[in-house]
Amino acid sequence: MNHDGTGIPGVALPGAPAPKDTPLVELRRAGKSYGNVRALYGVDLVVRAGRVTCVLGDNGAGKSTLIKIISGLHRHTEGDFLVDGRPVRFGTPRDALDQGIAAVYQDLATVPLMPVWRNFFLGSELTRGRRPLRRLDIPRMKETADRELRRMGIVLDDLEQPVGTLSGGQRQCVAIARAVHFGARVLILDEPTAALGVKQSGVVLKYIAAARERGLGVVFITHNPHHAYMVGDHFSVLRLGTLELSAERCDTTLDQLTDHMAGGAELATLKHELSQVHGVDLDAVPEGLGDTFPEGTT
Ligand SMILES: Nc1ncnc2c1ncn2[C@@H]1O[C@H](COP(=O)(O)OP(=O)(O)OP(=O)(O)O)[C@@H](O)[C@H]1O
């Protein structure tokens, strides 16, 4: 059941949003091994209502493993995983969705040639009438999609336009609004700004803030400390499967965050290597690697 009484299976009942700062999801000394590979260990993380928890880390740091545990794709092999203070062990992503935990992945799982409203309800279509005369309730789907997008502050000229014609940022925003509509109270965003330009990234960051304003607990996975710092309330930096930094916004600066991401020693090595290359202006190399190179190349 979803909250508009449409009987959509597998969608969490939202109820009243939890008060701000309520812990929704908690990992305590959690870890995951794939056979002999210890991808994650000793990780403490709290996702709170009305707050954005940023998870940063370089390639292979364990970010995907962490979100796969929370979203029910993988089971943790060490420590505890709690939802609303109760230990859980999800078998499938459906179990996570039933608890209101929704992940929005980079590839978004949309059908590019289908209209926006149709993608909004993909897999959870509204119907009217009884079998064998049951059919899609197109007017209600269009009206609901329009209303929900507007509630998130997303105004599209035409919901009939194929989702493939939207910009990457707009598509992310539609996916966020969709997850919120279907009862998400914990929203996991897997590098939503990774493939976007500056302006589009700004649009997505705005809707991350909008989700927080609606009381959701947001987990924002990113390589980019600048994007994290613009909206984050808490920062967890992973390195080689373990937490290198866990800090509240008031306890860390953007420079410190960037430094943790870059790794001071690695930056020094890189600067040394660059100094051997003709034509590189070393004075222009900023303090952090995250500044120096586009996402995904550091
Ligand atoms: N299915 C798997 N089997 C074995 N090892 C895995 C598996 N998935 C991940 N790993 C290993 O676990 C470690 C963490 O990987 P993970 O994908 O969680 O990192 P990440 O921070 O998401 O990296 P990226 O930003 O590149 O996606 C890596 O060493 C990776 O090789």
Describe this structure in words.
This protein has 298 residues and is an alpha/beta fold. It has two domains: 181 residues, P-loop containing nucleotide triphosphate hydrolases (Rossmann fold, 3-Layer(aba) Sandwich); 34 residues, no CATH class. Helix content is 32%, strand content 24%. It has a six-stranded mixed β-sheet with strand order 6-9-10-3-11-12, with helices on both faces. It has a four-stranded antiparallel β-sheet with strand order 2-1-4-5, with helices on one face. Strand 1 and strand 2 form a beta hairpin. It is globular, with a radius of gyration of 20 Å. The N terminus and C terminus are likely disordered. Bound molecules: adenosine-5'-triphosphate. Adenosine-5'-triphosphate binds next to strand 2 and helix 1.
Question: How would you summarize the topology of this molecule?
Answer:
Elements: E1 23-34, E2 37-48, E3 51-57, H1 63-70, E4 78-83, E5 86-87, H2 93-98, E6 101-104, H3 116-120, E7 127-128, E8 135-136, H4 138-151, H5 168-181, E9 186-190, H6 198-213, E10 217-222, H7 225-231, E11 234-239, E12 242-248, H8 254-262, H9 264-275, H10 289-292
Helix pairs in contact: 4-5, 5-6
This protein binds adenosine-5'-triphosphate.
- N-to-C SSE series? EEEHEEHEHEEHHEHEHEEHHH
Spatial strand arrangement across the major sheet: 6-9-10-3-11-12
Instruction: Spell out the CATH superfamily of the largest domain.
Output: P-loop containing nucleotide triphosphate hydrolases
Helix content: 25-40%
CATH topology of the largest domain: Rossmann fold
Q: List low-confidence stretches.
A: 1-13, 288-298
Number of domains: 2
CATH class of the largest domain: Alpha Beta
Ligands (ions, cofactors included): adenosine-5'-triphosphate
Number of helices: 10
Average of per-residue pLDDT values: 82
Computed structural class: alpha/beta
Rg computed from alpha carbons, rounded to a whole number of angstroms: 20 Å
CATH architecture of the largest domain: 3-Layer(aba) Sandwich
Count the E strands. Answer: 12
**Amount of beta strand:** 15-25%
